[in-house]
Amino acid sequence: MKRKDKSKKLIRYRFADELLSQDTKISFVAGVIAAAFLLVSVIIGIAKKGNAGDYVGMLLGISMVLSVTGIIFGFIAFRDVSGSNNGKRYAIEMNTAVLILLVILMIL
Description:
Blueprint (H helix, E strand, L loop, with lengths): L21 H26 L5 H25 L7 H23 L1
């Protein structure tokens, strides 16, 4: 019968208490909604052949407000020590990409 060597350390895996902080979750949700509004506005513009000014303008305006709000909450999330920094960075990058796409659409 073999005896176990007690000198070996046991590796214990723990789950993180919180993978994303609350501000990061808000930033992600704002970014996803902003991206969805951007996609819907492009689809409506294509379907109406460019004659959907009020609806598309409203959706793009809401999308811009949501993406700016997501960027602000993403930067606020860096003050909180809980959650991973990668999630915070990805949330800011997603909201910044949506904002850049909105600016490009407004210029065109």
